[in-house]
Amino acid sequence: MIKCTRCNTEKEFNVAFDLSRFNGKLYLYCTKCKSNTEHEILGVYDPLTNRFIDKRELANLKFKSIEMD
Ligand SMILES: [Zn+2]
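Above: inputs. Below: predicted complex with zinc ion.
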């Protein structure tokens, strides 16, 4: 899930990449604002477990992956 920081519209965002690299923010086109706006990353759905992972947990996962490297 991501949220437009300008109009606060929440939308689903399917990702096949590591969102944590964006520091919780990314610029995307918002259909409501009709422009590219900053979006806050609220979390993602893990397709492997069908589970919602919020941004705090994402940060922990990132931390773990760093540890394993
Ligand atoms: Zn917007």
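Strands lie at 2-4, 10-11, 25-30, 35-41, 43-46, 51-54.
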